[in-house]
């Protein structure tokens, strides 16, 4: 009775959700407080699981959400993406500035961020919180309290940070000359790196006993340089108190320099295509401009052995930088460096303070925060749900590889692939194995000194790469694991024990199968004959995806077909797994595999949940660029491509043989017909 009472109490909110028909659609564009309420309600409702009535409410809400994205008057057989996602752009519109793209992953992330925020807002409690969590909350509290710090004290503290490295006159006092004769930019960026770990102009990174040196992360130049200059000008004025006219000039110069630097940069992960060098080989080309050995020695605080080897990250970058720094005036270079340094310490004195501080904590303690959510929400039932579907997907994948349609694989190769598949494991990325007490016990924080606390956090582990937690699934070939981000543990968004299983297989199932498909790519497992056969099939995808059109433009014929192949395998594998689930389900239970007010068969529902996983909207300008990008097929075409290759789709929707979704030329790695 009690549970039903709660459900009734929440009914008005749910009704609101159903009537607006937008479900979670509000999360992106609506006000944060409304989103939070809906999230919180959902949590409450879903915790009371033992009432059929609650289940019905949850299903109604999910149905309303799914229907709200659809454009059911369109023909599913003509364009299944538009049929499934046609109204998405109205509900979650992208725009020119932010967000330039909207998609389902963002909804997940947004809900996840709310969960993180709720955990942070619980008052620190020495009885229940671990030491690391207490530190984190102390840091968060110091950030919130910093609003009370008088502005002049804040500015003075920023100037003190610069003064740790070089003498600079008070920037807010006009007419002060900055003596630049003694300014040594290389020495300055090296000391900043050693102390705080920021890669300004140059990068240094230790990983697996290797020293990488070279290009920092690519600066994403804004298309509009004036817009960037305005941002910097605002920084200079509001944070440093630089007088308006001066700020304008300086900002322009800094933005110009930034653009010149970014022109010589490429998008590349550290470790990819780096070149082994001895110190003198690194120095030789640019002796006039700078001495890389000197930089490295200051940062790592020891001398390099002449025989020691370093890895140069993006070999073309150093000579580009040499030219830029030679041409730049020392003043401009200096201001650029100090702006780069200080922006890590900027504190917004207006706007949503909770948002600012939560996002700071998220950047600085990513693993600990993930771990907190994991402990809070990753209960045994959810983990076992996820492990269950993982096993079913693996089982089904094995079936596809064992089927006669995979006979083109040479026997030994096939066995190796099967073994590899069997050995692949799923890891929930909640960092349960990290000893956070050990990691944070030496971190000393003060209750009110936010900037001091920031310094303390930055000065830890300055030479290793910063962790950027992923919010999507990834396959890690080194460990042969599929990593599931904590954000995906959230139930009642994509999947839930209240919803039909079709949704679980269509969303989580296809995502898992996609990553598993990447585990087949390890070339060392393939013999030449099988590989030649594989290449033939790959060529089919290449040709086919090259013929697909988005907004009237053709996609570039890309040779990077791995993603497309993984998509195609994933839908096949997940469908197969769902079909087995259905076949084992008692006929009387089949009714649970549908949603109220959505007249779709269980299999059709499976396809709908798959397609809606990829609903998105992208700003026009961004969209054009997207189709020119060679790496990723745009979402709509991912759905169209994979489903039109999959014969069963056409059958489940009774498509005629002429419809667009039943292209006669199908590309498949394994053409296992599964019905
Ligand atoms: C429902 O929740 C109760 C606790 O509230 C739990 O004991 C029970 O196992 C749950 N049932 C299901 C089907 O998850
Ligand atoms: C660069 O610096 C290192 C160490 O300070 C020094 O040994 C080396 O001779 C310098 N190289 C050049 C080309 O000046
Ligand atoms: C550098 O390597 C060479 C050959 O490997 C060796 O003869 C020489 O002693 C090494 N020099 C130093 C300073 O270690
Ligand atoms: C998968 O690996 C387990 C051991 O990890 C083994 O017991 C099992 O037989 C393997 N299954 C297949 C189909 O190879
Ligand atoms: C974690 O580290 C602390 C000290 O750094 C130690 O006392 C504790 O036993 C460790 N916990 C585990 C589970 O290893
Ligand atoms: C392969 O798939 C066909 C249907 O396409 C099916 O009849 C057959 O049983 C499958 N073979 C294996 C070994 O699973």
Brief synopsis:
This protein has 675 residues and is mainly alpha-helical. Among the domains are: 59-105 and 379-424 and 480-674, Collagenase (Catalytic Domain) (3-Layer(aba) Sandwich), CATH 3.40.390; 168-343, Orthogonal Bundle (Neutral endopeptidase, domain 2), CATH 1.10.1380.10. It has helices at 2-20, 26-29, 32-47, 52-69, 80-85, 88-91, 104-121, 131-145, 151-163, 185-196, 225-240, 244-263, 279-283, 292-300, 317-327, 330-342, 353-364, 366-377, 380-402, 411-423, 436-440, 450-458, 501-518, 528-547, 562-584, 602-612, 620-628, 635-644, 647-652, and strands spanning 101-103, 203-207, 210-214, 275-277, 310-313, 425-428, 474-476, 481-484, 549-550, 553-554, 616-618.
Q: Give the N-to-C terminal Cα separation.
A: 45 Å
What percent of residues are in strands? 5-15%
Rg over alpha carbons: 28 Å
What general form does the structure show? globular
**CATH level 1 class label of the domain at 59-105 and 379-424 and 480-674:** Alpha Beta
Organism: Drosophila kikkawai (Fruit fly)
Protein name: Neprilysin-2
Family: Belongs to the peptidase M13 family.
Cofactor: Zn(2+)
């Amino acid at each position: 009775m009690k549970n039903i009472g709660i459900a009734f109490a929440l009914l008005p909110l749910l009704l609101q959700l159903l009537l607006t028909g937008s479900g979670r659609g509000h999360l992106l564009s609506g006000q944060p407080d409304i989103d939070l309420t809906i999230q919180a309600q959902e949590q409450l409702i879903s915790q009371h699981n033992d009432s059929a009535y609650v289940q019905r409410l949850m299903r109604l809400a999910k149905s309303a959400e799914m229907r709200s994205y659809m454009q059911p008057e369109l023909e599913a057989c003509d364009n299944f993406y538009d049929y499934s996602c046609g109204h998405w752009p109205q509900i979650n519109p992208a725009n020119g500035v932010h967000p330039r793209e909207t998609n389902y992953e963002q909804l997940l992330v947004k809900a996840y961020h709310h969960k993180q925020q709720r955990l942070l807002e619980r008052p620190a409690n020495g009885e229940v919180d671990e030491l690391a969590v207490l530190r984190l909350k102390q840091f968060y509290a110091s950030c919130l309290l910093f609003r009370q710090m008088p502005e002049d004290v804040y500015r003075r503290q920023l100037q003190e940070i610069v003064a740790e490295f070089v003498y600079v006159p008070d920037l807010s006092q006009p007419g002060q000359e900055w003596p630049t004769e003694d300014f040594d930019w290389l020495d300055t960026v090296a000391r900043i790196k050693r102390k705080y770990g920021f890669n300004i102009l140059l990068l240094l990174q230790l990983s697996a006993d290797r020293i990488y040196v070279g290009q920092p992360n690519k600066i994403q130049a804004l298309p509009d340089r004036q817009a960037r200059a305005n941002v910097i000008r605002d920084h200079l004025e509001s944070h440093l108190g630089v007088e308006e006219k001066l700020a304008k000039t300086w900002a322009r110069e800094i933005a110009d320099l930034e653009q010149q630097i970014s022109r010589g940069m490429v998008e590349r992960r550290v470790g990819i295509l780096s070149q082994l060098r001895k110190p003198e080989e690194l120095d030789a080309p640019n002796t006039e401009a700078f001495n890389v050995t000197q930089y490295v020695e200051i940062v790592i605080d020891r001398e390099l052995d002449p025989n020691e080897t370093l890895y140069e990250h993006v070999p073309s970058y150093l000579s580009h930088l040499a030219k830029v720094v030679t041409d730049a005036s020392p003043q401009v270079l200096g201001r650029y460096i100090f702006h780069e340094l200080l922006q890590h310490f900027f504190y917004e004195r207006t706007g949503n303070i909770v948002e600012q501080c939560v996002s700071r904590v998220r950047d600085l303690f990513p693993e600990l925060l993930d771990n907190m959510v994991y402990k809070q929400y990753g209960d045994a039932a959810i983990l076992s749900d996820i492990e269950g579907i993982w096993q079913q997907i693996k089982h089904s994948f094995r079936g596809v590889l064992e089927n006669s349609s995979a006979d083109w694989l040479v026997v030994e190769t096939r066995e190796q692939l099967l073994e590899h598949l069997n050995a692949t494991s799923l890891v929930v990325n909640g960092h349960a194995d990290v000893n956070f007490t050990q990691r944070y016990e030496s971190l000393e924080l003060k209750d009110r000194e936010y900037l001091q606390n920031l310094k303390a956090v930055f000065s830890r582990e300055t030479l290793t790469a910063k962790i950027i937690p992923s919010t999507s699934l990834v396959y890690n070939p080194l460990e042969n694991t599929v990593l599931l981000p904590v954000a995906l543990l959230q139930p009642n968004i994509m999947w839930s024990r209240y919803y039909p299983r079709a949704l679980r297989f269509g969303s989580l199932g296809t995502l898992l199968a996609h990553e598993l498909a990447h585990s087949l790519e390890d070339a060392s497992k393939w013999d030449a004959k099988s590989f030649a056969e594989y290449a033939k099939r790959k060529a089919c995808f290449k040709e086919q995806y090259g013929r697909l059109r988005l907004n009237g433009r053709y996609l570039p014929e890309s040779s990077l077909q791995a993603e497309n192949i993984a998509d195609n395998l994933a839908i096949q594998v997940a469908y197969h797994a769902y079909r087995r689930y259905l076949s084992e389900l008692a006929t009387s239970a089949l009714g649970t595999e549908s949603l109220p007010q959505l007249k779709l068969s269980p299999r059709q529902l499976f396809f709908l949940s798959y397609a809606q996983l990829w609903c998105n909207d992208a700003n026009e300008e961004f969209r054009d660029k997207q189709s020119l990008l060679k790496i990723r097929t745009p979402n709509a075409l991912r759905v169209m491509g994979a489903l039109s290759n999959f014969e069963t789709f056409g059958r489940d929707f009774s498509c005629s043989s002429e419809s667009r979704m039943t292209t006669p030329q199908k590309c498949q790695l394994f053409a296992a017909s599964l019905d």
